[in-house]
């Protein structure tokens, strides 16, 4: 191998970081049983790759190279701590960087490592924000500063949260293992909720200037694909990946060139990501074969009806309402009821939609949920009940902190003012 | 193996008004629990029931006051000390602890080297 251009090496390391971080870290945790040591060693392995690959060339299998390098560093650390004997059988011997001939054979890596790691990150004994933070940090390799930025909290707050979670994992002995078959569904469900939460947070930022948090959306899809590779037959995983792909396929058309929010009704469907839609639709078909269907599969099926409809006018709202009916029966939740009510409004008319929404008025979980008054406002506007619509838009504005959504609601309010002055 | 303390928090009033049948069922449930621990891969090291919080006295520094350290609807009513290889095993044990009028808290016991 010959010396390689520094920028090409930097790009190769960055690419390996994106693709292989979780794999390298997870394999190293198996050896160290200590998240902090494993993280340190994995980071050092990536740093070493920058210089080593420049001198010797980028290895054919960067992930295997990095894993071997990180494990060797881990051995070194454990030796210094005098605890290597306990772990020795698991460890490779040399401390130098690995040559291409010493790498494990392809397929020899234990595929469960990343599953172990993500199930640990999403252990029910950790609180939800810690689960999300650990998943981003340990599975996606984000720095504490990046995780803090993703959730709009100060870096010190996020650092404390991550430290507390890691301490609980160590002290309470949250095990680093793949759950048994009977507890797997429950644990995978926790993992999927975290990935789904990341996706929804990215799809429409709860606050801030951008409608979409691209980084979070891409990380969550990446995690979904990883889970799909680890649990290929799991219908909930297939359903969630399908839901994310079908929803995100519309990303480029959700705002106009001037940043204005565009509703589904106004979006240019020819610009939807056809490849993501094809992949998502195939996954939904697979996911829907499971009986009863999982909640993600049903949500994805609803997204697929939109994705495959040639125009807003052709949307099969009856089919969507029918899917929401199944979803409501299997996983009743106020938010599902709200979405169903909106679909009813398009299938059977604004008056029926409004009645369905008003039935949710006393739902405590929806108090303070901006999409309820926003949906009411839209049906009231369609029904020509201008004064009530204006009140509802005002209420929705008070509850929405995303700048793009706020602009949209304020624009609707202005239009209503015009309608009234004309009449 | 690590030690975990399983703290049983329950509504005391429910016990005061419970029928003898209910009390009998709870006692039987505790016997059944103790018998099942080893089957879950853990070991019962100790455990006691406590008298109600009305009998508690709190001491802070030199100040002595009547009542429990923290007033809550659900009070600490007893505990089990178990030895388990990891938290998942301890939680599996905790799920079988009878706590009809409340729930349990699992805390790893600190070790000093």
What does this entry show, briefly?
The complex is a heterodimer of chains A (423) and B (113). Chain A has 423 residues and is mostly helical.
Which SSEs are present, and which pair or pack?
The complex is a heterodimer of chains A (423) and B (113).
Chain A: H1 6-32, H2 35-56, H3 62-80, H4 84-87, H5 112-121, H6 128-140, H7 144-150, H8 155-171, H9 184-203, E1 207-208, H10 214-230, H11 235-248, H12 274-287, H13 295-308, H14 317-330, H15 334-348, H16 350-358, H17 371-382, H18 386-399, E2 401-402, H19 403-422
Parallel strand pairs in A: 1-2
Chain B: E1 2-11, H1 12-16, H2 20-36, E2 43-49, E3 57-60, E4 63-66, E5 74-84, H3 87-94, E6 102-108
Antiparallel strand pairs in B: 1-5, 1-6, 2-5, 3-4
Oligomeric state of the chains present here: heterodimer
- Described by the principal axes of the CA atoms, the overall outline of chain B is flat
Indicate the radius of gyration of chain A in whole angstroms.
Answer: 25 Å
What is the end-to-end distance of chain B? 15 Å
Estimated structural class of chain B:
alpha+beta
Helix-strand string of chain A = HHHHHHHHHEHHHHHHHHHEH
Main-sheet strand order of chain A equals 1-2
Strand order in space, largest sheet of chain B: 2-5-1-6
Number of helices of chain A: 19
Biggest sheet descriptor of chain A: 2 strands, parallel
Helix-strand pattern of chain B = EHHEEEEHE
Q: Give the averaged pLDDT of chain B, no decimals.
A: 93
By DSSP, the count of extended strands of chain B is 6
* Computed Rg of chain B: 15 Å
Structural class determined from secondary elements of chain A? mainly alpha
> Per DSSP, what share of the residues of chain A sits in E-state strands of 2 or more residues?
under 5%
Average pLDDT for all residues of chain A: 88
Unreliable runs of chain B, pLDDT <50, ≥5 residues? Answer: none
């Amino acid at each position: 191998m010959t010396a390689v251009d520094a920028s090409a090496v930097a790009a190769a390391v960055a690419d390996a970081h994106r693709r292989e971080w979780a794999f390298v870290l997870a394999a190293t945790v198996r050896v160290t049983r200590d998240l902090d040591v494993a993280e340190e060693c994995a980071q050092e392995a990536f740093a070493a790759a920058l210089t080593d690959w420049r001198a010797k060339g980028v290895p054919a299998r960067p992930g295997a190279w990095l894993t071997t390098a990180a494990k060797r560093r881990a051995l070194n650390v454990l030796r210094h701590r005098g605890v290597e004997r306990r772990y020795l059988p698991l460890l490779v011997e040399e401390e130098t960087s690995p040559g291409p001939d010493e790498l494990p054979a392809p397929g020899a890596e234990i595929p469960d490592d990343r599953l172990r790691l993500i199930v640990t990150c999403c252990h029910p004994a950790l609180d939800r924000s810690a689960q999300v933070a650990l998943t981003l940090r340990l599975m996606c390799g984000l720095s504490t500063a990046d995780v803090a930025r993703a959730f709009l909290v100060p870096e010190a707050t996020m650092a404390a949260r991550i430290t507390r979670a890691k301490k609980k994992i160590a002290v309470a002995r949250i095990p680093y293992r793949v759950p048994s078959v009977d507890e797997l569904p429950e644990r995978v469900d926790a993992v999927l909720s975290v990935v789904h939460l990341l996706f929804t947070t990215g799809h429409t930022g709860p606050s801030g200037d951008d409608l979409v948090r691209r980084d979070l959306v891409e990380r969550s899809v990446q995690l979904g694909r990883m889970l799909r590779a680890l649990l290929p037959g799991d219908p909930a995983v297939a359903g969630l990946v399908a839901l994310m792909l079908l929803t995100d396929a519309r990303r480029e058309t959700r705002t106009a060139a001037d940043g204005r929010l565009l509703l589904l009704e106004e979006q240019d469907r020819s610009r939807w990501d056809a490849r993501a839609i094809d992949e998502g639709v195939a996954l939904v078909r697979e996911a829907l074969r499971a009986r009863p269907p999982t909640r993600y599969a049903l949500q994805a099926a609803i997204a697929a009806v939109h994705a495959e409809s040639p125009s807003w006018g052709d949307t099969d709202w009856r089919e969507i309402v029918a899917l929401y009916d199944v979803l409501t029966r299997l996983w009743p939740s106020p938010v599902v009821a709200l979405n169903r009510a909106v679909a009813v409004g398009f299938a059977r008319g604004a008056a029926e939609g409004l009645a369905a929404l008003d039935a949710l008025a006393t739902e405590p979980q929806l108090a303070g949920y901006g999409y309820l008054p926003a949906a009411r406002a839209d049906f009231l506007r369609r029904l020509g009940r201008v004064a009530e619509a204006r009140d509802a838009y005002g209420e929705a504005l008070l509850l929405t902190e995303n700048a793009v959504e706020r602009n949209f609601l304020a624009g609707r309010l202005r239009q209503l003012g015009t309608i009234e002055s004309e009449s | 193996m690590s030690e975990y303390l399983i703290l049983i928090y329950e509504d005391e009033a429910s016990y005061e008004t419970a029928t003898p049948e209910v009390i009998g069922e709870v006692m039987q449930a505790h016997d059944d629990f103790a018998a099942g621990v080893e089957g879950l891969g853990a070991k019962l090291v100790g455990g006691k029931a406590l008298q109600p919080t009305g009998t508690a006295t709190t001491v802070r520094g030199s100040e002595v006051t009547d009542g429990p350290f923290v007033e809550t609807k659900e009070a600490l009513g007893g505990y089990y000390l178990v030895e388990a290889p990891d938290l998942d095993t301890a939680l599996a044990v905790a799920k079988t602890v009878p706590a009809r009028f409340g729930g349990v808290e699992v805390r790893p016991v600190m070790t000093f080297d």
